[in-house]
Write a structure and sequence with these properties.
36 strands, 521 residues, binds FE2/S2 (inorganic) cluster, binds flavin-adenine dinucleotide
Length: 521
Amino acid sequence: MTEEKAKLDGPDLAQGVALSTLAEGAMLLGHTQGEAVILVRRGDALFAIGAVCTHYSGPLAEGLLVEDTVRCPWHHACFSLRTGEALRAPALNAVSCWRVEQRDGKAFVRENLEGARRPPPAASGMPGSVVIVGGGAAGNAAAEMLRQEGYAGRLTVLSADESVPYDRPNLSKNYLAGSAPEEWIPLRSPEFYQEHDIDLKLNARVAAIDTANRQVRLADGGSYAYDALLLATGAEPVRLALPGGDLPHVRYLRTLADSRALVAKASGSKQAVVIGASFIGLEVAASLRARNIDVHVVGLETCPMEKILGAEVGNFIRKLHEAHGVTFHLGTTATSIDKRSVTLRSGESIPADLVVIGVGVRPVVALAEQAGLAIDRGVTVNEYLETSAPGIFAAGDIARWPDRLTGERIRVEHWVVAERQGQTAARNILGRRERFDAVPFFWTEQYDFGFAYVGHAERFDKAEIDGRLDARDCTITFRRSGQKLAVAVIHRDLEGLRAEVEFERTIAAREAQSARAGAPS
Ligand SMILES: Cc1cc2nc3c(=O)[nH]c(=O)nc-3n(C[C@H](O)[C@H](O)[C@H](O)COP(=O)(O)OP(=O)(O)OC[C@H]3O[C@@H](n4cnc5c(N)ncnc54)[C@H](O)[C@@H]3O)c2cc1C
Ligand code: FES
């Protein structure tokens, strides 16, 4: 999270802008009352909202207008032009919203409408109590959405974590690199939960669900009754069983406590071995390099991230890390660890006073299994994120849902997907019957390099690169049997947003077609 505000570029919108200069469907960046604002014309209507995304301060003026919303170019949050509300994660807060007056052929941005934004009426006929198991991306977003939608019943979040919900993606990036202070990491203050009457219980591990009596039982013996239950227990790192794997300098990274411990250990370390050459491993490698630690990465694959991004991008990422001083040991694995080194299958020994293992995660489904819910490499949910048990929903890393683009059931481990699923599950708990149809999105950052990825291509037979990878200006399209499944963009944020909209329209068109085909003649 950066504290940088958009510079107050462009005209003072309180002084008026000639309507003739406002192109239909374009955004004009200006400012009013010391705040950066975008002014948008859609037909006869004019809208003015804050120009700085409330997630990580992305520049909304460089985003995409889609009907009466604007999408952020960085991580695709979506804001209403009419109210400024954050309609889609990862932004959780609204931007400001301003009244626009048209007079004498000019548009004038007038007063801030924040006071005029009304909460929706309290929902009636809703579950008397909602329990959310998990205080991560999905659990937190669901709790917030329930209150945002006017739910006034009892709302409890039970989290095994010791910390209030936090920005997990940052744990391997700026926080670990030392460029983000810890105060940026919590998503909300503890007071936020009190103010919104969300009973957030930390260090509260749920041990069992009694579906017949609609109760959850905590490991410490306490219990909570629910009318509706959301399971959002996330994922946990896969542990490597190898000699020395439990030595104190061998670390995994999932929680804030893990990241804190890693930061503390890193401050006295000189040589690190990272086992695992996928996202977490490579982000950790980059962050440790920022701390001037000598880093070796060990991976089973011969080309990092080839399975997800293709060989060309994989090789580019490898070279990027090598240029920053990382040494790779690929196509191999660690066979043992001791206090001073890691031994590889070949017998080679790499000195290490810090070892970080990032070899993937597995969904935390023990509770769902115990409750007898349908499981298929994750918790099986339908398009409304309902599990096989009435009144129980699942969201986030644990949920395997029917992907609207391919028709296949997928489970992904992405922050934005988890938050959006939490939001959809919350609305469905309130009886909205809303399908989860967000197109998957994730991003990564390593050094000064990053990309955004839209869609989901678990398997692909083609990765076409448009533009130049070495110039960090390209779009990569992933296809299987000719079908476009996903798009990754490097420094082409707008193309990433356009790809998202294109996927959404493909889904909508396909559904309209099947509705017509199924409609009685
Ligand atoms: C270091 C790191 C960096 C990442 N970077 C990115 C990124 O750049 N982009 C991206 O898209 N994704 C990223 N991810 C993945 C992303 O963070 C996850 O997809 C997301 O957090 C999943 O959300 P969730 O709510 O399903 O689970 P989580 O956020 O893991 O939350 C699960 C919660 O459930 C709780 N819990 C588990 N079991 C119980 C129980 N029995 N009782 C009570 N509570 C329980 C846990 O304590 C936790 O609070 C990253 C993940 C990590 C670890
Ligand atoms: S900065 Fe806007 S979505 Fe992240």
